[in-house]
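OP here, attaching both records as promised.
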Amino acid sequence: QLVESGGGSVQAGGSLRLSCAASGLIISDYSMGWFRRAPGKEREFVGSISWTTGNTYYLDSVKGRFTISRDSAKNTVYLQMNSLKPEDTADYYCAGPLGSSEITWGQGTQVTVSA
């Protein structure tokens, strides 16, 4: 399962760090991802990280502001979000292992950014 934490409410320009702890999953050969769903919008890919290489990929609109990292010892993936904008307001989900036959989703954590 995947358990997320770290959401909340911040003002524009602020920062939040989301965590996603994985248990009972084999993720070492795959990637882990972050997704979000804003009110009234479709779910979108935010970014991902290769568990093996640490290579990361990001949605264009978050590049330079969001950073994904992982702690292999804790089986935890993080999403550091800086310079937050109101348009980043959404429910954020971690998911993985990406590329496997069965992807698990976290329960989601809400992020609200006020102007």
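Record two, same layout:
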Amino acid sequence: QVQLVESGGGLVQPGGSLRLSCAASGNIVSINYMGWYRQAPGKQRELVALITSGGITNYVPSVKGRFTISTDNAKNTAYLQMNSLKPEDTAVYYCKMQAKYALDYWGQGTQVTVSA
């Protein structure tokens, strides 16, 4: 079994920064990609950013140039550096890992609130 634990969320003022972490543990065989998703109240969960095992990244247009996804393979950890945060970035952020055979694992989520 695989567990994902997110951390780093919190309350930040507009224009501020946060770094989310997602630590994976357990029987990790092979990772296709890791991604960060978010879900705001009353909205569907959306992909924010993902990074493949080969290092290819993809971002939703609304965060391009502000967010950066990265991984530390030695620590089985993914990060999401979020800069220039806006109130519309407020959501619960979830980490997802897709492993071999397209098995998906999700973290429990971490709240990010951007407010003055």
